[in-house]
């Protein structure tokens, strides 16, 4: 409990000046900043009701969404760390105050409709969830972009959709529409059937690696499933060793094999105009250089070759 108060107290400092004036003002006249400062102050003062959840359920028990919390981990009384074993609803929503006089005095609320900043919402969760596993969160893009824990997590539910392999892709693509479009393209990782998920490659709470990847580099990410591409090869192809995404889009593409581009254009990003290919004039009916696979017809070992005379990746 102490840690919740402490983390909120920091946020409270920002708004202290506003709080005193806010007290005299009716709730509905407060702007977002004043509202937040007032709720945060109430939270840290900690005048919790003695009846806990019972006092809330008097009015909220008919809402199935609300009572669903008892089906999830946060509603379990037998786990001593669970909110329900302590301050109950108020552990997250803050002290009731005069809210029970018709629900007009606001409570701390969460998610997309909340009037509170993401960091104020999150500090409530972090009061309990502050183990080392959460360390990367602070510098993560999601934190810096003001994404709230409750934008992904649903706590009033038997099963949090963010923790379910069959629904986590929906959680992510509700914001990431470009990746949603990509994963539904002709060639993609099997994400549209939820056989693979965003969190197979990305750490949702951030990581020390670029693009919040789970593995130290893009290539290590790919090797974790496509081990055969790691080599070692007698003849390497430089861009393959360097970065798989110089040719592939990991989320999907309209081209076969999730390629950014089709050959020969794919190759010509780096090899034109020096490549010998540009010197060859394609003839009608011959697609050695002009057809969809072109360069790959001869340079078939595009990821590297172990053939003694495979230096041109042709065998
Ligand atoms: C006397 C009835 C009553 C009691 C008791 C009550 N509430 Fe409410 N609560 C309401 C009403 C009515 C609303 C809707 C207010 C609105 O939409 O403006 C509401 C809204 C809320 C909201 C949404 C707030 C928002 O700003 O969107 C939360 C969260 C909430 N209550 C939590 C609680 C908790 C936790 C308790 C117990 C500590 C509690 N309520 C006790 C009547 C009550
Ligand atoms: C009063 C402490 C407390 C607060 C506040 C709290 N949690 Fe939890 N949370 C727990 C406990 C206890 C568990 C059960 C796992 C454990 O024992 O560590 C848990 C588990 C979880 C899990 C894993 C659920 C699962 O099924 O394994 C998620 C996700 C989570 N909390 C998110 C949140 C979010 C989001 C918030 C803020 C809206 C929040 N928590 C606030 C105590 C808390
Ligand atoms: C971008 C979406 C997203 C955000 C934002 C997010 N989480 Fe999570 N969280 C997830 C996903 C997805 C998992 C499951 C990870 C897995 O299956 O590998 C998870 C797992 C968890 C778990 C259980 C497993 C564990 O790592 O301990 C807890 C607890 C948790 N999150 C708490 C939080 C808290 C607290 C916040 C805010 C500070 C937060 N999450 C923000 C998506 C998110
Ligand atoms: C672990 C923190 C936590 C606890 C404990 C908790 N809530 Fe919530 N509450 C949330 C979050 C987060 C949301 C946003 C929706 C969601 O995640 O389910 C929410 C949403 C709500 C809402 C708005 C629902 C709506 O229809 O929009 C009400 C009302 C509410 N809670 C009341 C309660 C009551 C009553 C209790 C106790 C029985 C309670 N909450 C316990 C975190 C909590
Ligand atoms: C509420 C909206 C929202 C949700 C839900 C969400 N994200 Fe994000 N995410 C963002 C924003 C905003 C950014 C920063 C802008 C961008 O890169 O699109 C971002 C950035 C990222 C990045 C780039 C990180 C970096 O450091 O470059 C990754 C990877 C990512 N999100 C993965 C996920 C995954 C995986 C999930 C689901 C577990 C998820 N996101 C859910 C909003 C969201
Ligand atoms: C097979 C591994 C893999 C999967 C699965 C995956 N990603 Fe990525 N993602 C990557 C890699 C690798 C990058 C870095 C791309 C780069 O550097 O150009 C990336 C980059 C991103 C970025 C940053 C984009 C940018 O332009 O900076 C976002 C956002 C993102 N992924 C979201 C998602 C979402 C949402 C999902 C699930 C629908 C997902 N990813 C699934 C591997 C994956
Ligand atoms: C979690 C495991 C996993 C990771 C990590 C992974 N892949 Fe895959 N990859 C798969 C699976 C599963 C398939 C589908 C195989 C099938 O359909 O036979 C696949 C297929 C592919 C295909 C062929 C797609 C097609 O249309 O046939 C390419 C190309 C590919 N992956 C590239 C990558 C790249 C690049 C990375 C790193 C950014 C990566 N993969 C990371 C599991 C993974
Ligand atoms: C220079 C461009 C390029 C780079 C870089 C590249 N690939 Fe490919 N990749 C291709 C092409 C072209 C194909 C299609 C091969 C074919 O049609 O014979 C392909 C096909 C694939 C396939 C599906 C067919 C197969 O061979 O299994 C996988 C999986 C794959 N690549 C993984 C990777 C991984 C992992 C990396 C990074 C280590 C990587 N690629 C780097 C060009 C590239
Ligand atoms: C991202 C840039 C890039 C792309 C895309 C690319 N390559 Fe390369 N390729 C290189 C580099 C760099 C080398 C090493 C050149 C060197 O060592 O002089 C190389 C070497 C080669 C070699 C061996 C030639 C030699 O001199 O060692 C062949 C053959 C080749 N590439 C064919 C292809 C084909 C075919 C494609 C398309 C499927 C392709 N490359 C796509 C950058 C690229
Ligand atoms: C008909 C088979 C064939 C096709 C198709 C082909 N190549 Fe080649 N490539 C070769 C042979 C044989 C060599 C070695 C002889 C030479 O240098 O001309 C070579 C050499 C290369 C080299 C080494 C540098 C050089 O100029 O000697 C690169 C790079 C290369 N090819 C790229 C490409 C690209 C890019 C394409 C597609 C636009 C392509 N090749 C299409 C057969 C082919």
From TrEMBL:
Residues 1-24 form the signal peptide. SUPFAM superfamilies: Multiheme cytochromes. Residues 190-230, 237-274 form the Doubled CXXCH motif domain. Pfam families: Cytochrom_c_NrfB-like (PF22678), Paired_CXXCH_1 (PF09699). InterPro entries: Cytochrom_c_NrfB-like_dom, Decahaem_cyt-c_DmsE, Multihaem_cyt_sf, Multiheme_Cytochr_ET, Paired_CXXCH_1. One of its GO terms (molecular function) is oxidoreductase activity. Residues 89-162 form the Cytochrome c-type protein NrfB-like domain. Keywords: Signal. This is DmsE family decaheme c-type cytochrome.
């Amino acid at each position: 409990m102490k840690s919740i108060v402490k983390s909120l107290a920091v946020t409270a400092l920002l708004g202290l000046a506003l709080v005193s004036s806010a007290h005299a003002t009716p709730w509905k006249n407060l702007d977002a900043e004043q509202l937040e400062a007032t709720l945060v102050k109430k939270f840290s003062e900690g005048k919790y009701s003695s009846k806990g959840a019972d006092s809330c359920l008097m009015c909220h028990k008919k809402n199935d969404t609300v009572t669903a919390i008892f089906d999830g981990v946060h509603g379990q009384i037998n786990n001593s760390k669970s909110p329900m074993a302590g301050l109950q609803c108020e552990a997250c929503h803050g002290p009731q105050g005069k809210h029970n006089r018709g629900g007009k005095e606001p409570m701390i609320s969460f998610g997309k409709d909340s009037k509170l900043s993401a960091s104020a919402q999150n500090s409530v969760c972090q009061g309990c969830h502050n183990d080392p596993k959460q360390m990367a969160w602070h510098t993560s893009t999601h934190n810096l972009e003001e994404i709230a824990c409750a934008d992904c997590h649903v706590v009033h539910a038997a099963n949090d959709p963010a923790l379910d392999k069959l629904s986590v892709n929906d959680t992510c693509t509700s914001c990431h529409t470009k990746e949603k479009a990509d994963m539904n393209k002709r060639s993609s990782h099997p994400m549209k059937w939820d056989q693979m998920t965003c969190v197979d490659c990305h750490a949702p709470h951030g990581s020390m690696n670029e693009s919040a990847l789970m593995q130290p580099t893009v290539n290590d990410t790919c090797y974790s499933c496509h081990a055969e591409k790691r080599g070692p090869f007698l003849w390497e192809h430089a861009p393959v060793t360097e970065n798989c995404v110089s040719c592939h889009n990991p989320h999907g593409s309209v081209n076969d094999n999730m390629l950014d581009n089709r050959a020969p254009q794919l190759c010509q990003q780096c090899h034109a105009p020096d490549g010998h290919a540009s010197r060859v004039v394609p003839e009608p009916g011959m697609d050695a250089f002009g057809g969809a696979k072109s360069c790959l017809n001869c340079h078939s070992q595009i990821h590297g070759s172990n053939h003694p005379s495979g230096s041109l990746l042709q065998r």
